[in-house]
Predict the structure.
Amino acid sequence: MRVALLDDNLALGGQIWRAEATRDVNTAAARWIRRAATAGAKMVTRARVFDAPAPGVLAAEMNEGDEERRIELRYRQLLVATGARERFLPFPGWTLRNVLGAGGLQAMVKSGLPVAGKRVVIAGSGPLLAAVAAYLRHHGAEIALLCEQAPASQTAGLALALAKYPGKWAPAAALVWQLAGVRRATNCWPIAAEGDEVLRAVRVLRNGRETRIACDYLACGFHLVPNLELPLLLGCRTRGGYIEIDEAQRTSVANVFCAGEPTGIAGVDAALIGGQIAAAAAAGRPISARQKRARRRWHRFGMALDRACALRAELRLLAGPETLVCRCEDVAYARLASCRDWRDAKLQTRCGMGPCQGRVCGPATRFLFGWQDVSIRPPLFPVPVASLAAAATPDTGAEPAFEAVAGKNDS
């Protein structure tokens, strides 16, 4: 098969493997990338798909230094693995400088941001918080407090679930060791960030008592939400907030497969097995009983993770009337509270119509008001008008941008 892999990042590896892929040739990231290269797959980075103008056609914007150009890719089979992003919830002061996503701050440190000697409060929900805390501490940051919004009884369920996954024991034990001495609190969440344009302190509520903590950074992340924009644009059905798939990772759209977090937030191991099953099905190979068992097993882990990270109702009360919910279009909570649904909010306030296209405020309004996105339209990302004009009238008979997707057995 002739295979092309498109990644919108500067390098392969995603958020989890971003640095590992190049730091150590013996990491899992580096081994997988070598396997893909050895297999002859054409790997293209800095390519962001923004439209699917016709069946079997993707339009992408490719960044080459200071220039961007539109590329068109034709495929016979497509595997969508768009990952997940952090969920942000609005509270007073969350738009201050140095209030960042937990994973976002980690990515910035991986890209060279110095945090040695900086006081950091990490808050939200999910195991990502502990991983970020350990990483920042390793780079010299002082973790002032690690806050988990869920009560201890809720997080204990995930700890018990880990007992069934021996492969998770060593990483979990390593995190406990790396965070020795760090103040941690369950049943705790941020209620306000303070500062004059730049963050100076954060107020947290812990077991009903308010505490003010001086800090240089506040890193927040209330678990993860899947990146569903591309599969929804392709017409894939959802179930329970994730892309609906069959036993071969096939979606409801012919010749389109999906793997990883869009099918359920369950971590890297579930993504790996899902990708292998989808590839086997696309290649016409049988799916082994071992692979099926592994997928069911990691699906159960994902369900345990969702239960452990379920958000408490009190978080809906954090935003005040003037708190911005849509940061791109400066839409405050009070303006949205009178809207009927997501469509009404877009029409009346432009909520979700800024550069992020609802990626931040969309999940927030789903949690705050129970709204659901009613449609996904191109472009999925901001692109030049020339690219939109070209995508509106695709020439499916033209030569494709990459020969790697030019044969009859393309994927």
Summary: Confidence is low (pLDDT under 50) at residues 397-401, 403-409. The chain is about 35% helix and 25% strand.
